[in-house]
Design brief:
The complex is a heterodimer. Chain A has a single domain, classed as 3-Layer(aba) Sandwich (Rossmann fold). Helix content of chain A is about 40%, strand content about 20%. Chain A has helices spanning about 15-25, 35-45, 65-75, 90-95, 110-120; strands at about 5-10, 30-35, 50-55, 80-85, 100-105. In chain A, strand 4 (about 80-85), helix 4 (about 90-95) and strand 5 (about 100-105) form a beta-alpha-beta unit. Chain B has two domains: about 5-185, P-loop containing nucleotide triphosphate hydrolases (Rossmann fold, 3-Layer(aba) Sandwich), CATH 3.40.50.300; about 215-274, Histidine-containing Protein, Chain: A (2-Layer Sandwich). Helices cover about 55% and strands about 15% of the residues of chain B. By secondary structure, chain B is of the alpha/beta class. Chain B is globular. The chains are: A alpha/beta, B alpha/beta.
Chain lengths: ~130, ~270
């Protein structure tokens, strides 16, 4: 893998991408943000990301479908689920379908950065995301 | 790692599975051996605590304030232990009060009534019919206790991730089934479930500190923030809030604290009648 982490962030609330993009780019990641799951899936078809961060509840396509699609297209990609509707059954379903982690909103950018650092480590990356955390 | 809470029906045939499971998983086993620690915190005799757990009559005889303290301290001690990971818990009701933690696998062990009655009959020198009747009464008592103490019917299968009948499944096979389930992806810890457990552990630690002052106090926690809700008559409100704040702020892990006091309408009405 490249030394720069390629991350896709998908959330239908624009504020999420707006906040996460600069926070993760500060750590040296390349971040693409999407609000529309269809556009995100189209991009996932084109490009192999290291990490996909996705919301669960979205119109038309939900985060579990995105997770399934990513798992099919690129099994090495780590998928991190973020949701404001965190429930035990949903968390277990996501983990069962291969999610790397499941985080309840609200969270601080540093919380996500810590999870991304773990995902990067699992991918064999030497990028130290926590070195630049606030 | 995932954690396991086992709730075994009484008088099961064969040996206790919890130690075998713990050993196979490389986990610690926690249960009744934590009672001395809890009894010492509560400054009650261990035998009294032991008798109260699972026996509704003994439970009802205990002063309500002490009951509230007992439950608060059991929760605090056990949640602290579960938080430390790699644990098989049995006999301390974790299955009844730990809620929504996806990496906690709740297991219920049962057996056919005839097999359990045979164990009881041998243990107490009873005839099989007598043992069956005794068993039915014991089960009803246990259900009543779990409802009274935690508002949950311990015998309800819906409370558990796995229910295993040891009259139909060999103990060794049961251990394999539990270990296999715990090892599956569904039960792997994640940020959400670790946070849930941490929040519940913190809320329980705080509540254990406050419960002597207010047995009805409600405590919630999230990401180091703690919300305390108490009920007091108007003239006592300020004093109560201050006292709760002092105690809660001394608990490790409390980063931020909010104490909400609701008017004790019944107490206030009683005050006006003095």
């Amino acid at each position: 893998m490249t030394q720069v982490l390629q991350i896709l962030v998908l959330d239908d609330e624009p504020i999420v991408g707006k906040r996460l993009k600069p926070a993760l780019e500060k750590s040296g990641c390349l971040v693409e943000t999407f609000q529309d799951p269809r556009q995100a899936l189209a991009r996932i078809e084109e490009k192999e990301f290291d990490i996909v961060v996705t919301d669960i509840k979205m119109d038309d396509i939900d985060g579990i479908q995105v997770l399934e699609q990513v798992a099919k297209k690129s099994p090495r990609t780590k998928v991190i689920i973020i949701t404001g509707y965190a429930m035990m059954s949903l968390a277990r379903e996501a983990m069962d379908k291969g999610a790397f982690d499941f985080i309840a909103k609200p969270f601080k950018p540093d919380d996500l950065r810590a999870v991304i650092a773990k995902a990067a480590q699992a991918l064999g990356s030497s990028v130290d995301l926590m070195a630049t955390s606030a | 790692m995932p954690v396991v809470a086992i709730c075994a029906a009484s008088h099961l045939p064969g040996q206790d599975l919890a130690p075998t499971l713990a050993s196979q998983l490389g986990y610690a086993q926690v249960g009744a051996e934590m009672l001395p620690q809890i009894a010492s915190r509560l400054q009650v005799e261990e035998s009294k605590l032991q008798a109260a757990l699972g026996a509704p009559k003994a439970w009802q005889r205990i002063n309500p304030k002490l009951r509230a303290r007992m439950l608060a301290h059991i929760k605090a001690v056990l949640l602290e232990r579960l938080e430390s990971d790699r644990v098989v818990s049995s006999g301390l009701a974790a299955h009844l009060f730990v809620q929504g933690v996806s990496h906690l696998c709740k297991v219920r062990l049962i057996a056919d009534a005839a097999d359990r009655a045979a164990v009881l009959a041998q243990e107490q020198g009873l005839k099989q019919e007598q043992a069956l009747a005794r068993l039915e009464a014991l089960d009803a008592d246990r259900r009543q206790w779990s409802l009274a103490a935690f508002g949950e019917d311990e015998s309800a299968a819906a409370l558990y991730d796995l229910v295993i009948n040891l009259s139909r499944v060999e103990p060794g096979q049961a251990v394999k089934i539990i270990a296999g389930t715990v090892g599956s992806r569904k039960f792997q810890p994640m940020t959400f479930s670790l946070d849930r457990l941490r929040d519940q552990a913190l809320a329980s630690r705080v509540r254990a500190e406050l419960v002597a002052l207010d047995p009805e106090v409600r405590v919630n926690a999230g990401q180091g923030r703690v919300w305390v809700q108490t009920i007091a008559v108007k003239r006592q409100q300020e004093k109560r809030v201050q006292a709760l704040k002092v105690l809660a702020q001394g608990v490790a892990g409390v980063a931020d604290l909010e104490v909400q006091v609701l008017p004790d309408l019944i107490g206030q009405a009683a005050d006006t009648m003095r």
